[in-house]
From TrEMBL:
Residues 1-163 form the AAA domain. Pfam families: AAA_31. Gene3D superfamilies: P-loop containing nucleotide triphosphate hydrolases. It comes from Alteromonas gracilis. It comes from the Bacteria. This is ParA family protein. InterPro entries: AAA_dom, DNA_Partitioning_ATPase, P-loop_NTPase. PANTHER family: COBYRINIC ACID AC-DIAMIDE SYNTHASE, P-LOOP CONTAINING NUCLEOSIDE TRIPHOSPHATE HYDROLASE.
Length: 244
């Protein structure tokens, strides 16, 4: 079972958009998906609500129980946590082992093929727990100079933690998001990422698309809102890359 954590300490980097659309894309490919929302704003459900979500009691105890109210079934292959936004600002009992042990439990492994984790844009116990639990870490970022600096710092921190076996992830990749190929600066930064990290460490780019924002406004993944849009196409290609 894969545990994929999507993380960036900067806000506005399409973390939640990526988690929601990966969940739907994986589910369409026949994978059973559990989505863990560790951002106390609880925005994951904004992207899944229109699918129809009902509480479920067959997955066992909640991870970091004070953080969530329930586990919801959003489709036949997608389950997601519902964040308790009144209590999720507290960090009590959030340890690096709590979430990892839950992901490794027999109950979770029996139910799911993939666990997707959305993270807050801060260096917090929630972020550290998500990175510790991950088998795969994805860092979404727009190809701009300041974003590149943040990516480099997070990559270095993750690599050091992986080398010290604090993190168990074996895959650490960058996801270019909100990419505009007609912008010279974007093309230059992307080229720099390919040269610096290698093409195998940079995932298929997600182009800027208003349909991605419109889909969230309708509480849907882009596949369910605009299946022929560039956003749906790009996330389809990303799912293929990650599943393959």
């Amino acid at each position: 079972m894969k545990v994929i954590t999507v993380a960036n300490r900067k806000g506005g980097t399409a973390k939640t958009t990526t988690v929601v659309n990966l969940a739907y894309g994986f589910a369409q490919a026949g994978k059973r998906v559990m989505v863990i929302d560790l951002d106390n704003q609880g925005h994951v459900m904004h992207g899944l609500k229109a699918l129809g979500c009902a509480p479920q009691n067959d997955i066992g105890e909640l991870p970091i129980s004070h953080f969530f109210t329930s586990i919801l079934k959003c489709s036949e292959n997608i389950y997601a946590t519902d964040v308790d936004t009144n209590k999720a600002n507290t960090n009590d009992n959030v340890t690096m082992d709590t979430l990892r042990n839950w992901c490794d439990s027999d109950c979770v492994r029996r139910h799911f093929d993939v666990v997707l984790i959305d993270t807050p844009p801060t260096l917090s116990p929630q972020l550290m727990a998500a990175l510790s639990a991950a088998t795969d870490i994805i860092i979404p970022a727009t190809p701009l100079p300041l974003a590149s600096d943040g990516v480099q710092k997070l990559l270095t921190a993750c690599r050091n933690a992986m080398a010290q076996r604090k993190f168990r992830a074996t895959k650490l990749t960058i996801l270019p998001v909100m990419v505009e190929q007609n912008l010279k600066l974007h093309r230059q930064e992307l080229s720099g990422w390919y040269e610096r990290y290698g093409r195998n460490k940079v995932l298929v780019p997600i182009r800027k698309s208003i349909k991605l924002a419109e889909a969230f406004a309708q509480n849907k993944p882009v596949f369910a809102y605009a299946p022929n849009s560039r956003g749906a196409h790009d996330y389809t290609e990303l799912c293929k890359q990650l599943i393959g």
